[in-house]
Write a sequence for this structure.
C-alpha cells in the first residue's frame, strides 16, 4: 500500500512500486482527466506536476511520486495560476477535440508558476513536449501569454 | 426544400414525461442542391425536446471530435428558436440509421465536412417551426393575435401589453397545436447568433478534466485489456505461452483470437506487463515479404494501364499532340496513419441476451452492426453508448477496433475496456492509401494549358466501405445518388478522384482517370481531407510546374485560368495580398501558393518556408483565405483552418508509414513525427463574407497546405517536390 497526496488530499492505493502514476490515477483512482497518449513520454498528454514541476505520469513510478505534492487537471484550478490558465484556454477558445488539453494546461501552469511572463522561446521550451494532433498550438501560445497578463490579484492559492 | 409540405418535414407533439417534442427530418446534400425532396412518409431523424423548465435538448446524430459541430448545430437551432445558446443541451443520439441517418450518406455518420452543409436549412426550419407553435400557444393563453407576439431568449412577449410567458410554461399547450405550413426564416441580416464567434459548448469540460472520452469509461466490475495484433498484415496467431504473464500480479486472463492476443488485467499496467511477458509465435502468412518498394512497383505498373474515366472534356490527346510544349510528371504520396491522440479503445460487456459497447465513434450504427455480427445477437440487443472523440480524422469511421474488442469481450466474464498501445495504434491503423499519379499537360505558345491528362492510381476506400460497412438499403443508395452509383458500378471511385476531376481552372481539354490498385494486405481508410488531400497536392503542384515552364508568376498564371471562377479568384487574390506575395524574402526562403475548391468551400493558402543548407524545411507562416459561404461560427472556421493546416504541414514534413517484411516500420511519436509548438507556423486566416450556402471546413485546410508548402520549397530552392514527405537529404545544398 502506498499513500499519495493528490490535489491536497491523501489517497491510499494498492499498487506495485513500479506502476506508473498514470495508471494509478486513471485505473485505480478513477481520475481520468490525466490522459494516456503514448506511454513513453513523447506526447505530454499525461502531464501532472510533482511539487510544481511538470512530469509525464506514464513514466513516473508510483514510488517516485509518493511523498510529493501531486497536482492533476482535476486540482489545478485550485491554484491561482492554474485557474488563470484554464480561463485563458476558455477565453481564447483553445480546445478542439480536447484530448491533449489536460496535459497542455498542466505544462502551461507549471511554466507560468516558474516564469510569470514567459517569452516565445520559454513557451517553446516548456511546451514542445506536448503534442496537439488538432493543431491548437497558436492558440496555446496566445493563451499562455493571455494568462500571464491576468492580474495577480484575485483568488489566492498556489 | 421550399416545395416540401411542412407536415412531411416536421411534426410537434407531447414529449414522454411532458414538454414539447419537435421531430423533423434532415434531407441529404444532393437533394438539397437539387431543390427537390421525395414525397415519402414522414420519418423524422432529429429531435428537439423543450422541457417544462424551459431547457432545450437537441438530440443529434453528429458527434463532436474537435470540429465544433456541437456548437454550430446548436447555433442554427437557437437562432430561429430564439433561445440563448447556453439554454441548448445536446445528447448523443443512440444508434439508429432509421432515425439519425446523415442524409448525405444514408447512415448515421459524422465525416466528409457535411454537418453544417447538410443541416444549415433544416435545423433553422425546425427552430422556426417550434418557435411558431410556442407563440401560438401564448397567443391562445392570452386570447390575443399571435402576430402581436414575438419570441426572445426563451420567452414569448406580447408587444402591446409587455406580458411574457416562458417557453417552459407553454410547452404542454404547444404540443396540442398544429404546426403551421409556412414559417418564414429570418432574414440573414437579422441574425443575432449565426455569424458570431459563439463560445464552444464543449470547452469547459475539456479544460477541467471532466470531459469523458471513450477511454475514460468506467463500468462496475470492468477489467482492462491491451492487445497485440499479428505484426505482419494478414498473419495469424500460431501459439502463445502465457505462463510468465499469468504470474504477474493483476493479470487475469489471456485471450486468443485468430490474428491477435490480448491480456486482461485489473488495470492497464498489469495488462501491458502481461502482454510484454507473453511468448508469442506468429504465422506471418502471405505478406511476409511485402515492402513499400513492392507496393510502389505494383502501383507504377498499374499506372501504365488506362483507367476508369472520371472526366473527359474536349480532345486531350489531339490537343496534346499539337501543343507547343509538353510536361509529364509522376507524383507520389505515402501511406499515412491517423494517430488520433486518444489511442483506439472500446469497452464492451457481452451477456447472453445483450451487449453494451462504450466507445467514441463517428459511425454508431456501424458499431452496432459490427458488435451484433461478432456476438450473433440481433442488432436491437446491442446498445452503443457514444462518447466524445479524442480525434477522429477518419479513423473512427472504421469499426475494426470495435470488432476486436467485442471478440475479446466474448471470452471475458466481466465488462472489459480494450485499450490499444500507441505502438499498436500506429502499426494497425487503416492507412491513407499510397497514391501514384501520372499527370501530363500540353501548353500553347503563350504557355497556357491546352491539354491536361491525369491518371490517379491507388486503393479504393469507397469500394471497401461500400461493400463492407454500408447497409444495402434504399436510403443509402438514394443518398449516394444515381451519378455516384453508376460511376461505382463502372469501377470509378469518385472519392479517389475528388479534387482532380474538377480543378477550378479553365482547362479546355481534360481527361482524368482512375486505376484501382490495392496494396496487398494493407488496410486503407479515409484520412482528413479524403480525396482532395491527395489530389489537390498533385494538381496544385503541377499547375505550379506549368507556371514555371511558362516562365510566369504562380499567382498570375492561376489568375489567368480563373476568369470564370470568381470565388476562387477572390480567395487567391486575398491570400496573395495578405501574404505580401511578390515582396522580397531573405535568403533560403520562398513562398508557395495553392488553391482548393472542395467540400463546397474555396480556399487559397500561401506558405512561407525557409530551407537550411542541410535541407531542413521550416514552415514559418501560412496565410489562408477562406470562402466557405455563409459562416455559422467564424471562430470555428478559423480554428478548423489553423488545425487543418498543422495537420497538413505535419504530413508534408514528416508523414510516412513504410512497410518492411509485411510490417509497419514506425512505432510511436519518435518515428511517426507530429509537428510540435516550436515548429508550428504562424497562421493568419482571412474570412470572405458571403451569403452563399455554407461549405465544409473540417477537411480543406489540410488538403490545401501540402502543395502550398511544396511550391514554397520550389520557390526557395528550385527543387520540385513530387513525392511526400519532404526529405532533407533531397534538399541539401550542393
Amino acid at each position: 500500500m502506498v499513500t499519495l497526496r493528490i490535489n491536497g488530499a491523501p489517497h491510499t492505493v494498492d499498487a506495485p512500486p513500479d506502476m506508473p502514476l498514470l495508471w494509478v490515477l486513471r485505473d485505480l483512482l478513477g481520475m481520468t482527466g490525466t490522459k494516456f497518449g503514448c506511454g513513453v513520454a513523447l506526447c505530454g498528454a499525461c502531464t501532472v506536476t510533482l511539487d510544481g514541476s511538470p512530469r509525464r505520469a506514464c513514466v513516473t513510478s508510483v514510488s517516485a511520486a509518493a511523498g510529493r505534492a501531486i497536482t492533476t487537471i482535476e486540482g489545478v484550478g485550485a491554484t491561482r495560476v492554474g485557474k488563470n490558465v484554464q480561463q485563458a484556454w476558455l477565453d481564447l477558445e483553445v480546445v478542439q477535440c480536447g484530448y491533449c488539453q489536460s496535459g497542455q494546461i498542466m505544462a502551461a501552469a507549471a511554466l507560468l508558476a516558474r516564469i510569470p511572463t514567459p517569452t516565445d522561446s520559454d513557451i517553446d521550451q516548456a511546451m514542445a513536449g506536448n503534442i496537439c494532433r488538432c493543431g491548437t498550438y497558436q492558440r496555446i501560445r496566445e493563451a499562455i501569454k493571455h494568462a500571464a497578463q491576468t492580474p495577480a490579484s484575485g483568488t489566492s492559492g498556489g | 426544400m421550399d416545395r416540401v409540405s411542412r407536415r412531411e418535414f416536421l411534426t410537434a407533439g407531447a414529449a414522454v414525461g411532458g414538454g414539447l417534442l419537435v421531430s423533423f427530418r434532415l434531407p441529404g446534400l444532393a437533394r438539397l442542391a437539387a431543390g427537390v425532396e421525395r414525397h415519402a412518409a414522414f420519418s423524422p431523424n432529429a429531435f428537439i425536446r423543450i422541457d417544462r423548465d424551459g431547457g432545450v435538448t437537441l438530440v443529434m446524430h453528429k458527434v463532436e471530435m474537435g470540429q465544433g459541430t456541437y456548437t454550430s448545430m446548436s447555433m442554427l437551432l437557437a437562432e430561429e428558436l430564439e433561445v440563448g445558446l447556453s439554454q441548448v443541451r445536446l445528447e448523443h443520439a443512440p444508434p439508429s440509421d432509421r432515425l439519425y441517418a446523415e442524409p448525405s450518406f444514408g447512415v448515421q455518420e459524422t465525416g466528409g465536412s457535411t454537418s453544417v452543409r447538410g443541416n444549415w436549412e433544416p435545423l433553422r426550419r425546425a427552430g422556426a417551426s417550434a418557435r411558431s407553435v410556442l407563440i401560438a400557444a401564448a397567443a391562445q393563453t392570452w386570447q390575443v393575435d399571435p402576430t402581436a407576439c414575438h419570441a426572445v431568449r426563451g420567452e414569448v412577449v406580447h408587444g402591446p401589453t409587455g406580458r411574457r410567458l416562458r417557453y417552459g410554461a407553454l410547452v404542454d399547450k404547444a404540443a396540442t397545436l398544429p404546426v403551421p405550413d409556412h414559417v418564414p426564416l429570418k432574414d440573414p441580416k437579422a441574425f443575432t447568433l449565426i455569424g458570431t464567434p459563439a463560445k464552444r459548448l464543449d470547452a469547459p469540460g475539456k479544460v477541467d478534466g471532466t470531459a469523458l472520452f471513450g477511454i475514460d469509461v468506467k463500468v462496475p466490475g470492468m477489467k482492462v485489456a491491451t492487445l497485440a495484433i499479428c505484426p505482419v498484415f494478414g498473419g495469424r496467431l500460431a501459439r502463445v505461452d502465457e505462463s510468465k504473464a499469468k504470474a504477474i500480479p493483476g493479470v487475469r486472463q489471456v485471450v486468443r483470437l485468430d490474428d491477435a492476443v490480448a491480456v486482461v488485467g485489473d488495470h492497464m499496467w498489469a495488462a501491458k506487463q502481461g502482454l510484454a511477458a507473453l511468448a508469442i509465435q506468429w504465422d506471418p502468412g502471405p505478406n511476409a515479404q511485402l515492402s513499400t518498394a513492392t507496393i510502389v512497383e505494383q502501383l507504377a505498373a498499374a499506372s501504365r494501364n488506362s483507367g476508369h474515366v472520371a472526366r473527359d472534356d474536349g480532345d486531350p490527346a489531339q490537343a496534346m499532340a499539337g501543343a507547343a510544349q509538353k510536361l509529364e510528371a509522376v507524383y507520389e504520396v505515402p501511406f499515412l496513419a491517423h494517430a488520433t491522440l486518444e489511442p483506439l479503445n472500446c469497452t464492451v460487456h457481452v451477456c447472453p441476451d445483450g451487449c453494451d459497447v462504450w466507445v467514441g465513434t463517428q459511425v454508431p450504427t456501424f458499431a452496432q452492426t459490427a458488435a451484433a455480427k461478432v456476438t450473433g445477437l440481433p442488432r436491437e440487443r446491442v446498445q452503443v453508448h457514444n462518447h466524445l472523440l479524442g480525434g477522429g480524422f477518419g479513423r473512427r469511421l472504421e469499426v475494426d477496433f470495435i470488432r476486436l474488442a467485442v471478440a475479446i469481450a466474448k471470452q471475458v466474464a466481466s465488462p472489459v475496456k480494450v485499450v490499444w498501445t500507441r505502438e499498436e495504434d500506429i502499426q494497425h491503423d487503416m492507412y491513407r492509401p499510397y497514391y501514384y499519379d501520372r499527370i501530363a499537360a500540353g501548353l500553347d505558345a503563350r504557355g497556357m494549358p491546352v491539354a491536361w491528362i491525369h491518371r490517379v492510381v491507388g486503393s479504393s476506400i469507397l469500394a471497401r466501405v461500400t461493400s463492407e460497412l454500408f447497409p444495402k438499403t434504399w436510403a443509402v443508395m438514394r443518398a449516394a445518388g444515381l451519378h455516384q452509383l453508376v460511376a461505382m458500378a463502372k469501377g470509378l471511385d469518385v472519392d479517389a478522384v475528388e479534387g482532380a476531376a474538377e480543378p477550378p481552372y479553365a482547362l479546355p481539354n481534360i481527361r482524368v482517370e482512375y486505376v484501382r490498385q490495392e496494396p496487398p494486405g494493407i488496410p486503407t481508410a479515409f484520412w482528413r481531407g479524403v480525396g482532395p488531400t491527395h489530389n489537390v497536392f498533385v494538381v496544385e503542384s503541377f499547375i505550379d510546374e506549368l507556371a514555371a515552364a511558362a516562365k510566369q508568376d504562380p499567382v498570375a498564371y492561376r489568375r489567368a485560368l480563373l476568369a470564370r471562377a470568381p470565388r476562387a479568384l477572390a480567395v487567391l487574390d486575398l491570400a496573395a495580398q495578405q501574404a505580401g506575395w511578390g515582396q522580397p524574402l531573405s535568403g533560403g526562403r520562398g513562398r508557395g501558393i495553392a488553391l482548393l475548391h472542395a467540400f463546397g468551400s474555396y480556399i487559397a493558402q500561401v506558405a512561407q518556408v525557409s530551407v537550411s543548407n542541410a535541407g531542413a524545411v521550416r514552415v514559418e507562416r501560412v496565410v489562408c483565405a477562406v470562402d466557405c459561404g455563409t459562416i455559422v461560427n467564424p471562430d470555428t472556421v478559423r480554428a478548423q483552418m489553423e488545425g487543418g493546416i498543422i495537420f497538413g504541414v505535419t504530413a508534408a514534413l514528416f508523414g510516412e508509414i513504410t512497410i518492411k517484411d509485411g510490417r509497419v516500420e514506425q512505432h510511436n511519436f519518435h518515428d511517426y513525427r507530429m509537428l510540435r509548438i516550436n515548429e508550428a507556423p504562424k497562421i493568419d486566416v482571412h474570412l470572405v463574407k458571403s451569403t452563399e450556402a455554407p461549405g465544409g471546413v473540417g477537411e480543406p485546410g489540410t488538403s490545401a497546405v501540402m502543395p502550398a508548402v511544396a511550391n514554397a520549397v520550389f520557390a526557395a530552392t528550385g527543387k520540385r517536390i513530387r513525392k511526400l514527405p519532404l526529405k532533407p537529404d533531397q534538399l541539401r545544398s550542393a
